[in-house]
Amino acid sequence: MSAAPPVFLGSEVVEKHLHRASLLIPSLEAALANFSSGAEGGVVQPMRTVVPVQKYSGFLGVMPAYSSKADALTTKLVTFYEHKKDSSVPSHQATILLFDPRNGSLKAIMDGSVITAKRTAAVSAIATKFLMPADSEVLCILGAGVQAYSHYEVFTEQFSFKEVRIWNRTKENAVKFARSAKGPVQVCSSAQEAVTGADVIITVTMATTPILFGEWIKPGAHVNAIGASRPDWRELDDEVMKKSVLYVDSREAALNESGDVILSRAEIFAELGEVVKGTKPALPEKTTVFKSLGIAIEDTVAAKLVYDSWSAGN
């Protein structure tokens, strides 16, 4: 007897089942804690494989993961292209394959771009919950792409900031972002203007050289660094990296994939999963950086959540 054909869950279906970060955050916190628990956490996740598409300045990434505790097996295929001439095509496009871990049959093919955007922002929110200074009032976003929108959506759902600022190299994109936001957003003419006095800073840019400098950041601020996912790319300068307490999603990934970590030679204090499970402290009174590279187990638990929610309704 042959297995049932896989279902296809497109972006609208995925969006419907991940419409609030509060639905996703508990599963992600458990996944991060399990990931940082070694063998007893039940997570098997090799380093992502990245294939350069040199002719077109692109990359193909393959990100498999298995969680015995979540009973979930997936792989994500993600492409990353700079698209300097064609901004109508997203820089990141992704597809996630969800398998039945009992027998290996393919259960679902689902849009991975929405999951990537949502889970990345939700993990940043987890880091921010632990690491942002008390009574934080000012949120700053550097960048105006897909991740800027997902972070704004999640952060305004999870936190109460009195002021939100945005800066982007192409100002009209920042203006477009501000006009589409559900609350007031101040468009800044420079990154320094946006950062000065901010309590929480999110960098979601395509930068390959630093756009955030330590001299701008007020003591005790928290930075979520999302871009610069290649070993020779930077978003943050050495001063940011060396004067901050550094948290990462994965030590192995950060030491192999993050230009901000590799080139600054900054010391990693903890994985976020270690903070979630209480084996390493959060230090919100310090200046902190969470360097996010995005790990496959985050996609796995998010895809399982979407599939289970969809199945329950069908």
Automatic annotation (TrEMBL):
<dbReference type="Pfam" id="PF02423">
    <property type="entry name" value="OCD_Mu_crystall"/>
</dbReference>
<comment type="similarity">
    <text>Belongs to the ornithine cyclodeaminase/mu-crystallin family.</text>
</comment>
<keyword id="KW-0963">Cytoplasm</keyword>
<keyword id="KW-0560">Oxidoreductase</keyword>
<dbReference type="GO" id="GO:0042403">
    <property type="term" value="P:thyroid hormone metabolic process"/>
</dbReference>
<protein>
    <recommendedName>
        <fullName>Ketimine reductase mu-crystallin</fullName>
        <ecNumber>1.5.1.1</ecNumber>
        <ecNumber>1.5.1.25</ecNumber>
    </recommendedName>
</protein>
<comment type="subunit">
    <text>Homodimer. Binds the thyroid hormone triiodothyronine (T3); T3 binding inhibits enzymatic activity.</text>
</comment>
<keyword id="KW-0520">NAD</keyword>
<dbReference type="InterPro" id="IPR036291">
    <property type="entry name" value="NAD(P)-bd_dom_sf"/>
</dbReference>
<dbReference type="GO" id="GO:0050241">
    <property type="term" value="F:pyrroline-2-carboxylate reductase activity"/>
</dbReference>
<dbReference type="GO" id="GO:0047127">
    <property type="term" value="F:thiomorpholine-carboxylate dehydrogenase activity"/>
</dbReference>
<dbReference type="GO" id="GO:0005737">
    <property type="term" value="C:cytoplasm"/>
</dbReference>
<dbReference type="InterPro" id="IPR023401">
    <property type="entry name" value="ODC_N"/>
</dbReference>
<dbReference type="InterPro" id="IPR003462">
    <property type="entry name" value="ODC_Mu_crystall"/>
</dbReference>
<keyword id="KW-0521">NADP</keyword>
<dbReference type="GO" id="GO:0070324">
    <property type="term" value="F:thyroid hormone binding"/>
</dbReference>
